[in-house]
């Protein structure tokens, strides 16, 4: 005799084509899907001995399908080329430092394919779980203030301007970002 499992009214069952993303909210995915192209990214290749970290940039996102990253050409990418293959496990970190509430978005995936037609691109499978970590402790506030750094001369003498420019943002507590 077959028995059906009872569900409580608060329990939702994903539809067959939906993916349940543990610890990942729709807000996180919406934030990920609207990140600007050319956002700084790190690709960590998972190898048996030690992970390899490579710098890259985001080319684009095809929601629920793929993340497209630039394929680098520097000496670090050349040294890792034996591991840059279809199916290779990777961790992708997107660093959106221009956003006042800057976050690092990280997820595990696999290399889907390499494309060399329109550009040198590395395509990874769309994520199953997303982690979001604040890059800064306090939110940055955009400003545009003139600033200069002065070198102090001997007492009583005028100061010398070493550098001048503009402050672009500040935070409540200040300090390094």
UniProtKB/TrEMBL annotation:
Keywords: Bacterial flagellum, c-di-GMP, Nucleotide-binding. It holds the Pfam family PilZNR. It comes from the Bacteria. Residues 38-116 form the Type III secretion system flagellar brake protein YcgR PilZN domain. One of its GO terms (molecular function) is nucleotide binding. This is Type III secretion system flagellar brake protein YcgR PilZN domain-containing protein.
